[in-house]
């Protein structure tokens, strides 16, 4: 009893301290103004970083090149290692974001645009560890549909996690047409007869950089966790499927994203659509480019805008090298990289992704739509997603088809490599005037995972700070030990098809079983039909 009380007292003290962040930041500013910037010697050269404003014990090194700039002839080439430097390199500001179009003003995910460039392969490190301290490393891959985002977003600030004794790394990687374009001429010049997947290759290169350099930051290259959300989680999934990433990471966390439905293939049409090379040829023709040299000579902004206006499709490609086969086949046959996983999704993924923006105007119209989409499986679907609440059923169906089925199936297929999988379901509604309508929306959990709820759109409550403390503990302890845990909280048991354990992350945290079993049973049938 005394131990439990002590745990809760300690947690309460930690939470109370959060309310003095502004005072701490001011004091830290005074200290840091009088203190020389942290200097670190790495295999590349010396880096001059900064101290975190929130926690002066955490040192921050920004804008570190992990690959050579992918410009000129290196456009649409696998990344090459970054060159070293003489003297001291300033690492006090983020590198530019990779080429992208910003979210439109007024959209839910809009944020002010940062500088963009093709020269964008930089990463950032937060650490309080001394060199060679062998602390666990967490490498974050941002979301954004593989078309937007960067490692510089304030929600991804690594101070909170670094305070919990991990070394935190955020990474930029090539996006859109720069990261996922394939063309027969690219295949012909590749020694691996591949094209596309340059964004994934960037992530592999970043993980190689971690192996070669992270000990200088106090990290353990033999204990690396790769984690991401949405397209970052897709990337984690692709890395888990890719033999090129074998041995570069040891645990994986995927938040709301996997790719177990069929993916586009490099040089043949599949159920996912035209081949990637056929789409590339079509894009080149519509751009008026007669050769690969002409495509490489196009100004980056012109190429970006024109490809986007022409509807260029961005996704990982089954190319026989980076992604050797359809991911579902790799995972169902136990040929993925052998790592424990922590995966999950949010209860209201579709509210900010447009899933409820256009709804049928009657139960009859909704049922007709379901029959048109699902054919002879429609009656089964209507039992799970009935017409009596069209908005809820539409949002639940979107959530399960786009996110839930992928995450639960990934957890289940991890048994094929004899590793544990831990499943979560996030239901907490962040604060704000739209809280009831938006619910636990897509990406809502990120601020809690990073212990950064002060970055939420609206003022965080004591409950938000408490949940962030708990969730970040679970994530960090998974990185430490391969088993997620948090002091004074429920034991998180592994998921299997026999014992369908999961952790409910809401106003209260609880260990549960059998999350939406009817939904996965019907989606197994739907996905089988689509393969």
Explain the overall architecture.
With 531 residues, the protein is of the alpha/beta class. The chain has helices at 2-18, 21-33, 159-162, 176-180, 184-189, 198-213, 231-241, 276-287, 292-297, 300-309, 327-332, 363-374, 378-384, 390-413, 435-438, 446-449, 462-481, 517-530; strands at residues 39-41, 46-48, 50-51, 59-65, 88-90, 97-98, 116-117, 122-127, 135-141, 167-171, 219-229, 251-255, 341-346, 421-426, 501-505, 509-513. Strands 3-4-8-10-9-11-12-13-14-15-16 form an eleven-stranded mixed sheet, with helices on both faces. A three-stranded mixed sheet has the order 1-2-5, with no helix packed on it. A hairpin with a 3-residue loop joins strand 15 (501-505) and strand 16. Helix 1 (2-18) crosses helix 17, helix 12 crosses helix 13 (378-384) and helix 14 (390-413) packs across helix 18 (517-530). The N and C termini lie far apart (54 Å). Residues 1-10 and 15-34 have low confidence and may be disordered.
Instruction: Kindly provide the radius of gyration, computed on alpha-carbon positions and rounded to a whole number of angstroms.
Output: 23 Å
Number of helical stretches of at least 4 residues: 18
Q: Using DSSP, what is the number of strands?
A: 16
* Strand percent estimate: 5-15%
Strand order, sheet with most strands: 3-4-8-10-9-11-12-13-14-15-16
Oligomer: single chain
Residue share in helix: 25-40%
Structural class: alpha/beta
Strand count, sense and barrel status of the largest sheet are: 11 strands, mixed
Mean pLDDT: 93
Give the low-confidence spans.
1-10, 15-34
Cα-to-Cα separation, first versus last residue: 54 Å
Shape: globular
């Amino acid at each position: 009893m005394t131990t439990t009380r002590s745990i809760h007292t300690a947690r309460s003290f930690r939470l109370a301290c959060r309310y003095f962040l502004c005072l701490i930041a001011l004091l830290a500013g005074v200290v840091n103004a009088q203190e020389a910037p942290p200097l670190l010697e790495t295999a590349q050269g010396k880096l001059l970083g900064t101290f975190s404003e929130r926690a002066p014990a955490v040192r921050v090194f920004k804008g570190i090149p992990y690959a050579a700039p992918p410009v000129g002839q290196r456009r649409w080439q696998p990344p090459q290692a970054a060159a070293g430097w003489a003297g001291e390199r300033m690492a006090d500001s983020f590198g530019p974001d990779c080429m992208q179009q910003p979210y439109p003003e007024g959209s839910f995910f809009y944020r002010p645009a940062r500088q963009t460039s093709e020269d964008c392969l930089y990463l950032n490190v937060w650490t309080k560890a001394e060199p060679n301290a062998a602390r666990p490393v967490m490498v974050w891959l941002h979301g954004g549909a593989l078309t937007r985002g960067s490692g510089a977003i304030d929600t991804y600030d690594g101070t909170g996690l670094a305070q919990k004794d991990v070394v935190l790394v955020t990474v930029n990687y090539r996006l859109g047409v720069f990261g996922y374009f394939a063309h027969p001429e690219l295949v012909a010049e590749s020694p691996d007869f591949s094209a596309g997947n340059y964004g994934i290759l960037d992530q592999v290169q970043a993980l190689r950089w971690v192996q070669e350099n992270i000990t200088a930051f106090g990290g353990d290259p033999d204990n690396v966790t790769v984690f991401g959300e949405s397209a970052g989680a897709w990337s984690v999934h692709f890395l888990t499927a890719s033999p090129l990433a074998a041995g570069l990471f040891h645990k994986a966390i995927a938040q709301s994203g996997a790719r177990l439905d069929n993916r586009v293939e490099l040089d043949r049409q599949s159920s996912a659509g035209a081949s990637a090379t056929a789409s590339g040829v079509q894009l080149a023709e519509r751009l008026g480019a007669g050769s690969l040299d002409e495509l490489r000579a196009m100004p980056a902004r012109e190429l970006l805008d024109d490809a986007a206006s022409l509807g260029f499709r961005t996704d990982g490609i089954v190319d026989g090298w980076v992604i050797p086969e359809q991911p579902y086949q790799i995972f169902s046959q136990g040929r993925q990289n052998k790592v424990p996983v922590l995966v999950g999704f949010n209860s209201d993924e579709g509210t900010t992704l447009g899933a409820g923006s256009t709804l049928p105007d009657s139960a009859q119209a909704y049922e007709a739509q379901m029959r048109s989409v699902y054919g002879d499986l429609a009656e089964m679907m209507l039992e799970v997603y009935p017409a009596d609440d069209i908005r809820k059923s539409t949002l639940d169906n979107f959530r399960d088809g786009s996110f839930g089925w992928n995450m639960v199936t990934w957890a289940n297929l991890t048994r094929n490599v004899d590793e544990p999988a831990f499943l979560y379901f996030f239901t907490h509604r962040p604060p704000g005037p739209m809280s009831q309508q938006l619910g636990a929306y897509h990406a809502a959990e990120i601020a809690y995972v990073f212990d950064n709820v002060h970055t939420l759109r609206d003022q965080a409550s004591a409950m938000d700070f408490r949940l962030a403390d708990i969730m970040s503990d679970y994530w960090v302890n998974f990185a430490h030990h391969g088993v997620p845990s948090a002091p004074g909280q429920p034991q998180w048991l592994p998921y299997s098809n026999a014992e369908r354990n999961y952790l409910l992350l809401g106003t209260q945290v609880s260990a549960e079983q059998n999350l939406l079993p009817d939904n996965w049973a019907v989606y197994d049938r739907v996905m089988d039909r689509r393969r």
